[in-house]
Amino acid sequence: MKLVIANKTHSSWSLRPWLALTEFGVPFEEVLFPFGPTFDDPEWKRAVSAYSPAGKVPALVDGEIVVWDSLAILEYLAELRPELAVWPRDRAARAMARSISAEMHSSFQALRGACPMNLGWIHPPRDRGPGVAADVARICTIWREARERFGAGGPFLFGAFSAADAMFAPVASRFTSYSIPLDPVCAAYVEAIQATAGFRAWREAALAEPWIVAEDEVDEPVLTDFRPHLSRSKAQR
Length: 237
Ligand SMILES: N[C@@H](CCC(=O)N[C@@H](CS)C(=O)NCC(=O)O)C(=O)O
Prior knowledge:
This protein is an alpha+beta fold. The protein folds into two domains: 83 residues, 3-Layer(aba) Sandwich (Glutaredoxin); 112 residues, Glutathione S-transferase Yfyf (Class Pi), Chain A, domain 2. The protein is built from nine helices and six strands. Strands 2-1-3-4 form a four-stranded mixed beta sheet, covered by helices on one side. The chain has a two-stranded antiparallel ribbon with strand order 5-6. Helix 1 packs parallel to helix 3. It binds glutathione (GSH). The site of glutathione has 15 residues, from helix 1 and helix 3.
């Protein structure tokens, strides 16, 4: 299988299936197309469109079968490898896992807009407006409920790592990058995601990338710059 992705520093949708495949130990070949200077770069579009009918990443190519869109890829993986419990085995847990994954897929635009995934640095905390606050509150409610109802068997939302964790992994990374204050349950969950071997490998590769994407570089003070070798100012591009 081939998984078509973009920059590990910036591509939150790519991270989701990549992390699931990696954490579940499913072998795949990675095909990475670095974004152009902007997301609508025609050359990037052309290259990705050779794999993905949507012209977006991620896309999974399994022989003649192409699956695009992160959530569809996770469903495909669950069907392909039923022995892996990609979704939780318990029906009630699975129902919640699918619901919150779909909610993640379709919601939280304020957070996504104001705090794009960027593993390159940590920003100091600041008020990011009511929309972001509402998204953070809703996500934390989801995480606490999943942990409380179904999380007893491990550190993830439903105990063992599942597709729902893959869906929320980029949010966990945003909470760190933007120093979002969290209660102890949510802070522990963010740590658990970031402690997975898969996330650590992704992050290590991200920090070695030489690419800057203007849209995902938020121009504001930084606490920690993990990419001192790159010029971080949009103005300098
Ligand atoms: N709903 C899609 C979103 C995919 C998406 O928007 N991917 C971004 C990269 S993270 C992309 O390909 N952007 C380029 C574009 O929209 O032209 C999914 O879940 O996979």
